[in-house]
Amino acid sequence: MDKPNVVSACVLIIGNEILSGRTQDLNLQYIAQTLGEQGVTVREARVIPDDRDIIVDAVKYASATYDYVLTTGGIGPTHDDITAECIAAAFGVPLVNHPEIEIRIRGREAPADVMASRLLMARVPEGATLIENLTGGPQGFSMENVHVMAGIPAVLQAMLPNIEFSGGDTVKSRSVRAFMGESEIATKLGELQKQVPSVDIGSYPFHRDGIYGTTLVVRGTKLDEVEATVEEIRGIIRSRGSEPGEVNEGDGA
After folding, report:
1. Which of 59, 246, 60, 71 is nearest to 151 (CA)?
2. Are 141 and 125 a contacting pair, CB within 8 Å?
3. What is the pTM of this model?
4. Alpha helices in 66-185 (DSSP H)
5. Which of 43, 71, 87, 140 makes the best surface tag, with the fewest CB within 10 Å?
6. How many CB atoms lie within 10 A of CB 213?
7. Are 81 and 47 in contact, with CB atoms under 8 Å apart?
8. 43-60 residue pLDDT tens
């Protein structure tokens, strides 16, 4: 059996405001969907604080473990925007002012104290390349396999399409609904998963309009295997005396 070519990514969501609950992360879903379309699978996502040691350690681990690392947040003009210096520390290089960013920043007049704060956004690790961003917001950059972006969703969405990814096999998914609890089909699903290790079977309970049920999602790189597994699941549902329900792809659970 040919082993699927899986290209992996890790997302590091940086910011005390996310952990405190003051701000809701709106970037992970967009990143995962965008990368998935290019054959890159997000295998891990972490929310971490604005803490230098934690960020440095997380970047080192993720960079060595996954094909790509994407970070969000912490590249603005305030004292707690420390992502750039942490990336520099993780790669053991100095933090320098990028001349292109500095020219852009100095092109907008501002009082001396405001300009000094803005110029903090010109700092990047030595050797980094810029991620094109036409919004006028904080400038993202790439350092080897680590891509650093803003946490502001509109700015991130302007940056991400400008990063080139070399993807692997695209993951396909199909879903079916069982109008019963997970426990009623758990044993059979477990047995089926062992029989088809090349696909992933996920189980997600739902409650809508007074109806309880479970959405079963099958993911894999080979569409014929995914669809065959879904047919097996339909058979399991029918064996329990119920008729499987259809799910429009993208409809969610």
Report:
1. 71
2. yes
3. 0.80
4. 83-91, 99-106, 112-119, 153-159
5. 43
6. 19
7. no
8. 999 999 999 999 999 999
Q: Are strands 140-143 and 40-48 parallel, antiparallel or unpaired?
A: unpaired
C-beta of residue 211 within 8 angstroms of C-beta of residue 160: no
96, 126 contact by CB (below 8 A): yes
- Would residue 15 be called left, alpha or beta, if left means φ above 0 and alpha means ψ between -120 and 50 degrees? left
* CB-count exposure of residue 170 (10 Å: 0-12, 13-18, 19+): middle
pLDDT of residue 252: 41
User: 201 versus 171: which is more confidently predicted?
Assistant: 201
Q: How confident is the model at residue 135 (pLDDT cuts 50, 70, 90)?
A: confident
Continuous segment of H or E residues that includes residue 53: helix 52-65
176 bridge partner residues:
216, 246
Say whether 251 sits in a helix, a strand or coil: coil
